[in-house]
Amino acid sequence: MTKKHRAFLKWAGGKFKLVDELAKQLPKGKRLIEPFVGAGSVFLNTDYDDYLLCDINPDLINLYNIIKQTPEAYITAAKALFIPEMNDKQAYLDVREKFNQTQDPFARSVYFLYMNRHGFNGLCRYNRKGGFNVPFGTYKKPYFPENEIRYFSEKAQRAEFKCIGYEEAFALAEKDDVIYCDPPYAPLSTTASFTTYVGPGFSLDDQAILARESRHTALVKGIPVLISNHDIPLTRELYRGAKLGSISVQRNISQNGGSRKKVDEIMALYDHHYREDEE
């Protein structure tokens, strides 16, 4: 059993628990493209020659590029904030304010990790003006992920990081590529719109466009696409014509362990070898 590698960021909807299952479903190829890289658990736990890792959050992509290029300088600067005096609500609010005031890429990347580990539930959320607005998390001793950062940096030598949307990421796909999509999940109910992680959110129209783009990419370009999402009637309808698999998983959305609900996840594989008429 190979050692599983954890992402250095806490991330809502992170794929660490699912990577074994996902890795079994992912087709072979030379390069893996992830239009929604998030914390990168799939990247960290698969073995492709190359990676194209995309996200629309510029802070995330900036952070990954800095860790790829200058890991030691980054670790030194970020570690300095992981001291008891900084694990304090006012200190956190001060850093958050500094983050929102500066455009310096290195400073923002250092503050980003600090807020990710000291902020509430590791959420990443911005207000309409683009200001980071996650409240303080009150954790006893936030963990500084030094080894995880080093591993990420080492593996990132095989990766290219781009701040682009999913449609642009699809447009860059070529022969021998494989695409894995982990979009913001479809809401379990119309009230549970948990899709506001980044900016204006990911609408049901986006879910449908992504499904159509995936089907087209597999059938026309011959590039396989795997998508994960909640296993609900809506997604089964959206991904008609894909090869569907389901796994059950615990979602860590609430802080109170007792109220975590199990929601199955669907994995939809669009592959040019697979046609709807085979069903």
Walk me through the structure.
The chain has helices at residues 19-25, 41-44, 58-69, 71-79, 89-101, 105-118, 146-155, 166-171, 204-221, 233-238; strands at residues 31-34, 50-54, 159-162, 177-181, 225-230, 243-250, 262-270. It is of the alpha/beta class and 279 residues long. It has 2 domains: 16-56 and 164-278, Vaccinia Virus protein VP39 (Rossmann fold, 3-Layer(aba) Sandwich); 65-147, Orthogonal Bundle (Adenine-specific Methyltransferase, domain 2), CATH 1.10.1020.10. The protein has a 7-stranded mixed sheet with strand order 3-2-1-4-5-7-6. Helix 3 crosses helix 7 (146-155) and helix 4 (71-79) runs antiparallel to helix 7 (146-155). The longest helix is centred in the last third of the chain and has 18 residues, at 204-221. GO terms for molecular function: S-adenosyl-L-methionine binding; sequence-specific DNA binding; site-specific DNA-methyltransferase (adenine-specific) activity.
Using the coordinates shown, work out and report the CATH topology of the largest domain.
Rossmann fold
State the CATH class of the largest domain: Alpha Beta
Q: In total, how many domains does the architecture comprise?
A: 2
Query: What sort of overall outline do the alpha carbons produce when their principal axes are compared?
Result: globular
What is the strand content?
5-15%
Uncertain segments of ≥5 residues (pLDDT<50)?
192-199, 253-258
CATH superfamily of the largest domain: Vaccinia Virus protein VP39
Assembly form of the protein: single chain
Q: Give the strand order, joined by hyphens, for the main sheet.
A: 3-2-1-4-5-7-6
* Overall pLDDT metric: 90
The H-and-E topology, N to C, reads as HEHEHHHHHEHEHEHEE
Using the CA coordinates, give the radius of gyration. Answer: 19 Å
Largest sheet: 7 strands, mixed
CATH architecture of the largest domain: 3-Layer(aba) Sandwich
Total strands: the figure is 7
> Between the first and last Cα atoms, what is the distance in angstroms?
34 Å
Structural class of the secondary structure composition? alpha/beta
